[in-house]
Design a protein that fits this description.
This protein is mainly beta. The chain has 1 helix and 13 strands, in the order αβββββββββββββ.
């Protein structure tokens, strides 16, 4: 299974009434189980891969609206339109290194496959790529802010 298949599996599992799922495919194995009081626990056993432990989006309080200094972006509790969402739990970074130019700014046109940010999860830096050609309308997350699975990071429009 590749990362996208695992993400889709987790998304479907979160929305289903299933409480436990175990899949074994060759050397790869993943076990998903919804725990007590709405918590969800994910674990995977593979040669080099481990899925992070995450809570369902419904159990997470939405961030309070905050305006960025300089009007660069604002955090919205419920963004409208298309968005680029976090594929995992972690910490979001706008640029490849501290002090470096951000991957994307408001108004930028991004091509499919182009990096738009990084999410650090379990000390691993994961580039987040645009899944389609788009224009960045708003940046919904501050640099260094924790993000949840499926949380909107950018509001975009297709180009």
């Amino acid at each position: 299974m590749d990362k996208n298949e695992i993400r889709e599996l987790i998304r479907i599992f979160d929305k289903s009434d299933i409480t436990k799922l175990k899949i074994k495919e060759g050397d790869f194995s993943i076990e998903l189980q919804k725990g007590f009081e709405g918590n969800v626990t994910y674990s995977a056993a593979a040669p080099v891969m481990q899925a992070p432990s995450i809570a369902p989006a419904a159990a997470v309080a939405a961030p309070a609206p905050v305006a960025h200094v300089g009007g660069e972006a604002s955090i919205n509790a419920a963004p409208a339109g298309l968005s680029i969402k976090s594929p995992m739990v972690g910490t979001f970074y706008k640029s490849p290194a501290p002090g470096a130019a951000p991957f994307a700014k408001i108004g930028d046109v991004i091509r499919k496959g182009q990096p738009v940010g990084i999410i650090e999860a379990m000390k691993i830096m994961n580039e987040i790529e645009a899944e389609f050609d788009c224009k960045i309308l708003d940046i919904l997350v501050d640099d260094g802010q924790p993000v949840e699975y499926d949380m909107p990071i950018f509001t975009v429009e297709k180009v």
